[in-house]
């Protein structure tokens, strides 16, 4: 088979060497960084401590008091001398409640281990060893692990839902409903379901989301939801302040613009335009049917549609790259050199956190990656339609 100049066969030796080299490099680098982190004389306070302290709080005090910053900080200072406000809706309490039952270290290992297992299974990596290793040693996986964050669960629920969707729409709806524990990461899922006419799944997504919230009210009392509603203005202020404070490590259009001194009003206006563009991209991918590249478009588009996503949420982005390349491998496609560069940039983007100015250009990489996915998905749809047209004409 002849190879066109400037193209990389997905099953070819050259791309295989590049992928294997990256996996080997981070196969050594990620464990090294993790071990160096764990051997520090005093571990930095990470977000797992926040979840652990929230769990301890609702075991010792009324859950509705968790939005009282003074009471929550009193417990956190007693545990470690740091402060983390509870910025989530009460449904999150269902997920973190068991953490206080485990020692801190064991809980952290279980927290990350379960998320990682779900992430790899949801990507469908059984039988694809290089892809499985890529998900395991990806820079985004290391970042999430060090932070003790929930991003691996989010990626597992999103990709797992789309993997189940063609055969088990009810199961997919359950997973999507659970993803509402971080609604900003599920913002494009309903649009994707409408675009692909997955009405049954959309119904179950809404039902599961409602059941999730109802279960939290049953477990912790309706008062916790009343406290959340009462405290929404304060929470909105805290989130806005967090965005300004942590925008160098956030991966959204708003945060990138704020770092470069763009006025807040202008940043929000540009964010709104990019959100609409992300919605259009997802619609273009999913209106042709449910595919895993469509799921990749939802995952990547989320970073353009929401103004509040951190770098540690990037397992969604790495998973999208892995899913996209896996689909190209299944189709035995070729990739242009510029496409390979974009995919590598998307996978390696979390490494740029050590160069703040470079990471603050993350939205450019995300936009290029989304454009690549949409371009491939729509081209594939046109090819399929063209191939089926002669058959329809013959029948006519």
Number of extended strands: 2
- Strand proportion: under 5%
> How many helix segments?
19
Gyration radius (Cα, Å) is 22 Å
Taken in chain order, the helices and strands follow as EHHHHHHHHHHHHHHHHEHHH
| Arithmetic mean of pLDDT | 88
Main beta-sheet annotation: 2 strands, antiparallel
Which of globular, elongated, flat, extended, rod-shaped describes the shape? globular
Oligomer: single chain
Low-confidence stretches: 385-396
Percentage of helical residues? over 70%
Question: Would you give an account of this structure?
Answer:
With 396 residues, the protein is mainly alpha-helical. It has 19 helices and two strands. It has helices spanning 13-38, 47-60, 69-79, 92-96, 104-122, 129-137, 139-147, 151-164, 169-178, 189-195, 199-220, 222-246, 253-259, 264-286, 292-305, 315-331, 337-348, 356-359, 362-395, and strands at residues 7-9, 334-336. A two-stranded antiparallel sheet has the order 1-2. Helix 8 (151-164) packs antiparallel against helix 15 and helix 14 (264-286) runs parallel beside helix 19 (362-395). The chain starts with 6 loop residues before the first strand and ends with a helix.
Q: What attributes does this structure have?
A:
19 helices, 2 strands, 396 residues, 71% helix, mainly alpha, globular, single chain, two-stranded antiparallel sheet, disordered C terminus
């Amino acid at each position: 088979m002849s190879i066109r100049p400037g193209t990389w066969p997905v099953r070819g030796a050259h791309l295989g060497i590049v992928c294997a080299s990256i996996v080997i490099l981070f196969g050594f680098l990620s464990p090294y960084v993790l071990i160096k982190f764990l051997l520090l004389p005093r571990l930095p306070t990470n977000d797992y401590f926040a979840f652990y302290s929230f769990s301890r709080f609702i075991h010792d005090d009324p859950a509705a008091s968790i939005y009282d910053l003074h009471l929550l900080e009193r417990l956190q200072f007693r545990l470690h001398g740091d402060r983390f406000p509870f910025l989530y809706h009460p449904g999150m309490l269902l997920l973190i409640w068991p953490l206080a039952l485990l020692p801190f270290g064991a809980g952290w290992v279980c927290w990350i281990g379960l998320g990682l297992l779900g992430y790899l299974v949801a990507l469908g990596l059984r039988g694809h060893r290089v892809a499985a290793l890529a998900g395991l040693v990806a820079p985004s996986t290391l970042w999430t692990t060090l932070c003790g964050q929930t991003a691996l669960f989010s990626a597992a629920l999103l990709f797992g839902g789309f993997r189940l969707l063609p055969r088990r729409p009810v199961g997919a709806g359950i997973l999507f409903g659970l993803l509402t524990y971080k609604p900003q990461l599920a913002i494009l899922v309903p649009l994707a379901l409408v675009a692909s006419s997955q009405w049954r799944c959309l119904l179950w997504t809404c039902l599961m989301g409602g059941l999730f919230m109802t279960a939290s009210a049953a477990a912790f009392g309706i008062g916790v939801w009343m406290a959340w509603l009462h405290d929404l203005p304060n929470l909105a202020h805290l989130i806005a302040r967090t965005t300004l404070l942590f925008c160098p490590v956030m991966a959204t259009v708003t945060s990138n613009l704020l770092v470069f001194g763009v006025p807040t009003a202008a940043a929000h206006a540009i964010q709104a335009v990019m959100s609409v563009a992300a919605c259009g991209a997802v619609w273009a991918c999913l209106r042709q049917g449910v595919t895993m590249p469509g799921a990749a478009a939802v995952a990547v588009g989320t970073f353009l549609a929401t103004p509040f996503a951190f770098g540690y949420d990037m397992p969604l982005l790495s998973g999208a790259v892995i899913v996209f390349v896996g689909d190209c491998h299944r189709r035995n496609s070729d990739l242009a050199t510029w496409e390979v560069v974009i995919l590598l940039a998307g996978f390696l983007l979390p490494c740029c956190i050590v160069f703040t100015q470079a990471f603050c250009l993350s939205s450019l990489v995300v936009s290029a990656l989304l454009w690549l996915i949409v371009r491939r998905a729509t081209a594939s749809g046109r090819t399929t339609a063209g191939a089926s047209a002669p058959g329809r004409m013959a029948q006519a």
